[in-house]
Amino acid sequence: MNVLMSGDMAGIPAAEVAERAKTHESTVVRLAKKLGYRGYPELRADLRRDEEEMTPSATVMRGESGHDLSAFIADEIRALKRLPHFVPQEDLDAAAQTLHASNVVYLYSKNDERPTLELLARRLRRLGLTTVLLGPTAKDLAEGFVSFDAKSTLIALALREAPLHLPTLVSEATRRGGKSIVLSDVPGYRFRPSPDHLIAARRGDDTEYRTQLIPMALAYALQLAIFHLAPAHYQATRDSIDDLTRLLGGADEIPLRS
User: Where does the record place the HTH rpiR-type domain (predicted)?
Assistant: First the structure.
């Protein structure tokens, strides 16, 4: 992936990609299929589109596929259907087990991904997990991360590109004995240093307009996977949250239980 993303690769055959990456041509073909393409030629065509000079239509959101609602929904459904192809259930369960064993979960992303990060934090809090949303500046990060320890887990979003401080945070999490999880939309990319768990799935096919539906779906999937590790415990926590909500005057927010 590092070789393919290095630029001006649209005209390079698979054999040369393999040579530059010091691997076998068959590995390049397998990578293309893992990314959801039928083969390397289809991946190369996609690279060519990315490298072509921007045309007036490409500056418009969904310039490749239009604003038609049916086409938009079809693209998102296609991305959702292939999600299990990219994320094996055992990988999701392993990340859930790490979160289940954590005392505190620290969450980090770029500002563009903050809505998804906040959704993920809320899903975890609904299970009773303590969360810390890390701020954007170095000082904010230091103040939020200073209490990270061996019973903590870092979750970071890395969509399109990794946040600036991600390598440092992953390295520091490991040094302190904790765990790290990265949610990405670039399958096959090797993060350095490597997180304990990498969950990567492609988003929609339109290169100019990719929603955060896939990472949001992963947030819900993680919540479900954690819940089913200890259903009685987490249901009791959810019931307690509902009871406290009513006690605090939020009865209209929670449906009554029989």
Answer: 1-54
